[in-house]
Write a structure and sequence with these properties.
Structural class: alpha+beta
Strand order of the largest sheet: 1-2-5-4-3
Number of domains: 1
Order of helices and strands: HEEHEEEHH
CATH architecture: 2-Layer Sandwich
Helix content: 25-40%
Number of helices: 4
């Protein structure tokens, strides 16, 4: 599968656990270690954990890779999942508001994904 396919699966997993305000940012031409950021949030640390678990399980069931690294899964306030070609950032609402990661990358283009497959992807 191509990166876009894994990102769509990730987006569906996020939706399954009611992740909020999911965006996908294309950082490939300015960030050497990855092509895309997938950013989403949950209302509580418990929901963040559920989202992270669902992403990992969904990709694994589809025969995809395991993340090379997962950071932040001790408190579930900001979890980073490294899938190589894309990084998944799952925040709780407060942490997302504080760090405003999307604002740091606001000059980057939206990811080009089929509009019927995913919404609010940037």
């Amino acid at each position: 599968m191509a990166s876009a396919d894994w990102i769509l699966l990730t987006s569906k997993a996020i939706d399954e656990k009611s992740g909020r305000d999911t965006v996908v940012i294309d950082v490939g031409d300015v960030f050497a270690i990855t092509e895309y950021f997938v950013i989403t949030s949950g209302r509580t640390s418990r929901q963040v954990k559920a989202i992270v678990d669902e992403i990992e399980e969904t990709i694994k069931k589809a025969g995809g890779p395991s993340p090379t690294c997962i950071e932040g899964n001790d408190e579930y306030k900001w979890v980073l999942m490294d899938y190589g070609e894309f990084l998944v950032h799952v925040f709780d609402s407060n942490e997302r508001s504080y760090y405003q990661l999307e604002r740091l990358w606001s000059d980057r283009p939206l990811a080009t994904l089929p509009p019927d497959e995913a919404t609010n992807l940037r």
